Amino acid sequence: MLRYAIKRLGSLVISLIVASLVIFACIEVIPGDPASFMLGINAQPDTVAALREELGLNASLSARYLSWVTGMMSGDFGTSYTYRTPVAEIIGERLWLSLPLALIALGLTVLVAFPVGILAATKRGSWADMSVMGATQLGIAVPNFWFAMLMVVLFAINLRWFSAGGFPGWENPAAALKALTLPAIALALPQASILARVMRSALLDTLSEDYIRTSRAKGLTRRQSLWRHALRNAMIPVLTIIGLQFSFLLAGAIIIENVFYLPGLGRLVFQAISQRDLIMVESVVFLLVFAVIMVNFAVDLAYAWVDPRLRGRA
Amino acid sequence: MTLLSIEQLNLSIGDLPILRDVSLSVGAGEVVGVIGESGSGKSLTAFSVMQLLPRGASCQGRISLLGRDVLTMTEPALCAMRGRDVGMVFQEPMTALNPVQTIGAQVAETILIHEPKTSKSEALERAKQALTRCELPADKFPLSRYPHELSGGQRQRVVIAMAIALQPKLLIADEPTTALDVTTQAEILALLARLVREDGMGLLLISHDLAVVSDMADRIVIMKDGAVVETGAADLHRTMTHPYTKALFAASGHQPVRSAEPQEIPLLQVQNATRDYTLPRRSLFGPVDTFRAVDGVSFEIKRGESLGLVGESGCGKSTLTRAILGLDPLQGGKILLDGEPVGPAVRRKMQVVFQDPYGSFNPRHKVGRLVAEPFHLLNRKATAEEVDAALISVGLTPPDKHKFIHEFSGGQRQRIAIARALIIKPDLIVLDEAVSALDVSIRAQILDLLADLSDQFGLTYLFISHDLSVVRAITDRCLVMKAGKIVEEGATETLFTAPSHPYTRTLIAAAPQLPAA
Q1: Are A218 and B82 inside 8 Å of each other by CB?
Q2: Does the record carry Cell membrane as a key word (chain A) (predicted)?
Q3: What is the pLDDT of residues B14-61, one digit of tens each?
Q4: Who contacts B130 (Cβ-Cβ below 8 Å, separation ≥6)?
Q5: Among A44, A57, B34, B280, which residue's beta carbon has the most beta carbons within 10 A?
């Protein structure tokens, strides 16, 4: 198990290095000079040159890459071209919204998908299964921003249970959670639908395995076979999907953040791209890649926990 | 005392009748063998006793187990019965165990389910005893092992330990040794016989293999198409009256007639062939270990000869086959076909028929296209006449080329596989366990077909199998392979009647024998 973890950790470090190189290279090849963009078209050449010097744009490529990477390691992500404040500070603020939002949405996804998927699999072919399959089909098909707007109309405008948007900050945790409720539901709807379907089909696959028949021949009831033997074996595909969903929820909430006027990472990266705030884009993208790689690492460890066959594998 | 009596059992799945008026009984300490080909309903009869039937199945009739009628029992009563009164052993030990639980936990579960008051440690202690009885002592096979750390035979012992942990009155074994090597099969059958004797259990032994059942059973039940056609004592081979029983015995010992004489010219020459596999590194920068799967193997096949290659799983016969087909590179030695090294240039002189008639065809192509596939070696398309001729030569008809592969039975598919191998008129056909998945009567037909074809086209066969009786029936000369090496080589009859190597003797002794009529 330890060997497996160390190997996965090794590949994690390599992925991070490759990702940082790719991100840096992509940003470098984008045409346009951030200094002249920031100063506008009427800027004097010497002003632009001075700003380039100040932003460190005149150093060599390798020196800039190294200072970017070493800076990130010490928590210094550089200074935003547009906001003129440290990038780490801005990302930190935004992360305090996006990370809890992603976690709540993922929690909702799992809470809904597991029981629904298990129910559908155990009652295969019944009306319960069919309604679950129909509802999840709908959940995937309905665009979640539209569903978000419907919720705003119902819960914020008509019933006035929630506010229609904005985020009050974490000084008042109850208010903050309340503000994240509708966005989290909107984000979770399609994800829960996908996960429930994956859960159902993974469970149906394992329920038809020979060892389920063996367990029934030992005298286990259908339910006992399901909980003791089938569920853990069905977890591999489910864990894969959960890993993908978390990464997606962290970065892919741009539209939902816009619907609810939430200052999250998605909106930050969108604004940074349109304002050509390259250092900001670089940092946010790297942070997201970092999150994806960490989640994959966690999923890999979870695989090994679920399946002993993976532990010894090199 | 009668443990199990099945009377007039009818079973249907949906509207499809599967079993018709099946009656049989098993007494204490008695071994009853149920024999039938695929689709005869023998497994479903066994599953009816456990009431572990597929969806939509319904039973009529009477199944009396220890005096209680199984068909009227409630689900909780059935759960209490399964595992306690009746244990069951399945065909496929590789998949019958939960891969994510230790063997100790899985055996202990049988005890914990039925005796919930037992402490976990006590259940594990009893699991240890059950595994020891099944010849898996805890000092060599700790309870913390996972199924993937065990071989097929060892896994089957775990399944048996689970089934006998509570010393049930009746044990049902559904093809318990079909997936195992002959020597492992002999060990597992001996284990079952010992457990039956020690515990006074009844054993319902289900098999397609007459020889296996004849060796063990006190009584034999023959099934065909969902009905019992004949029941008899262990000497059924002498007392049988039903034509199907007679046909089954005849097919099991079938010896095709071959008249072709091999020529003295060598067609395939394997010279000192060596194949290594690299193993994963033990440490991050440690040396790379290799595993020698084929170790300095040399032999020749003459034109028109039929050569057998026998050995147990893991002996290197599949690796050698891949090397002969030019699919894997060798690390030493060479393989020549008609004097040239095997590779794309001579590939067209050689075709192969695989074991699995279900997995070795693309289900989306029609038979005509499947059969014509080898023509890519000749860089031209097959003509309609060539496809028709190939189908006719294996006993099918030209219109069959418009069908899809799922429309054919296992035996027909294997004929199509042979047609595919024949179509470009190769010199050598490699038959890799080509009849192992077939029922005995189909197997006899395919063996006859192969014998005919070799007479007709002067074909040379390399016949790779773990099944000694088949190799004996169809080959002129035979090689015995063990741990990557050829340990014995000789004319087939001599080798079987007077084996010289101890391993060959073990193999032949382990193979179940059909009783002489």
Answers
A1: yes
A2: yes
A3: 888 889 999 999 999 999 999 988 888 888 999 999 999 888 889 999
A4: B107, B161, B162, B164, B165
A5: B34
